Amino acid sequence: MSRTKQAVTIIGAGLNGPLLAIGLVRRGFDVTVFERRPDMRRVPMSAGRSINLAISTRGIHALQQAELWESMRSIIVPMKGRMMHSVQGELTFQRYGKDDSEVINSISRADLNIALMNAAEQAGVQIQFQQRCLGLDLPGNKIRLRDESSRQEREASAEIAIACDGSGSAVRNAMLRLNRFNYSQEYLDYGYKELTIPAGANQKHLLETNALHIWPRGKFMLIALPNIDGSFACILFLPFEGENGFVEVQTSAEIAQFFTRQFPDVVPVMPDLIANFMANPVGSMVTIKCSPWHVDSRMVLMGDAAHAIVPFFGQGINCGFEDCTVFLELLDRHGADWPRVFAAFEQARKVNTDAIADMAVDNFVEMRDRVADPNFLLRKKAELALEARYPGRFIPKYAMVTFHRLPYSLALSRGVIQEKILMELCNPITRVEDLDWNKAGQLITSRLAPLEQVL
Ligand SMILES: Cc1cc2nc3c(=O)[nH]c(=O)nc-3n(C[C@H](O)[C@H](O)[C@H](O)COP(=O)(O)OP(=O)(O)OC[C@H]3O[C@@H](n4cnc5c(N)ncnc54)[C@H](O)[C@@H]3O)c2cc1C
């Protein structure tokens, strides 16, 4: 491809923006990123917005392509499986993958964001902070910006603009006024609140380090992800309204009673529970689907701006980083033929981002409810046994999404078939040792083509 210094404007220096910017600069583009927030490396972040993320194969691949993954190893904590906590304090560990090579990695969003911004600036990307995009002047190839400190508004030319401005995207909102722009948003009736389990003495984790902890309680749950400093970043998911909803847990007494009743083993390790709970806001979770993602050759949506999903498959940023991988591959294939690249990008991604959006909603029920169910645990064991016997043919849905880079749409469709096979095999038994291997062989070979044939 030609090495022109064509200018590309990116809106949003969250997680996708800087990663994409690095790929573009390395391909010879002149990249400016406009970010509405102040620079988090200089200004402390607001409370309750520090979520940990689980990075897995798709995200790791994109970071490897940008030659960043090795340097991130020092800021991640591998999580080998789920550690379930019952109300009585019993612990049950359930592996995520077939062995220790299949883990997910806990990383602080802020640490990841800072690492990406540092790397982007080192690569030559210019990030301008406190520059809020207010909208687009499409015919004039411009974006409208407001300087958040001086409140002054201005226009900046943006021949090629890529909107990585997250789930509340201002650019996408501006596109709502365009003819034939399709848009849907669906909020969960659940909210989330961040809490912290501080480090113990000598920065020791007070719970098992290499696990994602879950307190599944049927209609709600608490989770905790390990940090490198010995603390855990926790997220409490409750319905907004009704029984055990945020509406019922507001005063100090209500918070203390709720935790003592539902999560008694957490109370001793969360000394700042009440202050934390009161200080941190309740966030909402939404699925956003829209199309088209691009306007002619001029701008395109990417990451959460194009497809916000709920967090229960731990795939939001993995999916966003995979957007970057695919976009850069298309740019390498077609050169700076932007209309072609934008159209091919949406064609390649939309079916897959729709699929992970739906799987993420389904996984909420699995995490908060089914992980504590003995039948579910039996099926998980059966999945691993079937994978070991039929590699390349039967791969658990969770693994297809998390430990492979198979299209999400394929994980969804094969996942449905596999679920039926598992039902047929597991319904008559209570122990994985009693699996009917003849039947398993028949069902799998007749219903699931080898993956190498379908890719
Ligand atoms: C509770 C929770 C848990 C999650 N857990 C996981 C997980 O375990 N694994 C995972 O992969 N994903 C997870 N996610 C999803 C993940 O956080 C998002 O998918 C990811 O942050 C999206 O990246 P992005 O760059 O598209 O958007 P963002 O990270 O939201 O970045 C958008 C950036 O644009 C800026 N911006 C916004 N509007 C404007 C504007 N008008 N002008 C200029 N700048 C603007 C914002 O300030 C921000 O910096 C989770 C999300 C939540 C809410």
Q: What about the largest sheet?
A: 7 strands, mixed
Helix content: 25-40%
Counting H and I runs of at least 4 residues, what is the number of helices? 15
Distance between the termini: 27 Å
Mean pLDDT: 95
Instruction: Note poorly predicted spans.
Output: none
> Count the strands?
19
Class of secondary structure makeup:
alpha/beta
Strand residue percentage = 15-25%
Rounded Rg: 23 Å
Task: Tell me the layout of helices and strands.
Layout: E1 7-11, H1 16-26, E2 30-34, E3 52-55, H2 57-65, H3 69-72, E4 76-79, E5 81-85, E6 91-95, E7 104-108, H4 109-123, E8 126-128, E9 131-137, E10 142-147, E11 153-157, E12 161-163, H5 170-175, E13 182-197, E14 211-216, E15 221-226, E16 232-239, H6 252-262, H7 273-279, E17 283-291, E18 294-295, E19 299-301, H8 304-307, H9 316-334, H10 338-368, H11 374-389, H12 397-402, H13 408-426, H14 437-447, H15 451-454
Parallel strand pairs: 1-2, 1-12, 2-8, 5-14, 12-19
Antiparallel strand pairs: 3-7, 4-7, 5-6, 9-10, 10-11, 13-16, 13-17, 14-15, 15-16, 18-19
Helix pairs in contact: 1-4, 1-9, 2-9, 9-10, 10-13, 13-14
Flavin-adenine dinucleotide is lined by residues 11-17, 34-37, 51, 53-54, 132-133, 164-166, 170, 192, 235, 303-305, 311, 314-318, 320.
Short description:
The chain has a domain at 373-454. It is 38% helix and 24% strand. The chain has helices at 16-26, 57-65, 69-72, 109-123, 170-175, 252-262, 273-279, 304-307, 316-334, 338-368, 374-389, 397-402, 408-426, 437-447, 451-454; strands at 7-11, 30-34, 52-55, 76-79, 81-85, 91-95, 104-108, 126-128, 131-137, 142-147, 153-157, 161-163, 182-197, 211-216, 221-226, 232-239, 283-291, 294-295, 299-301.
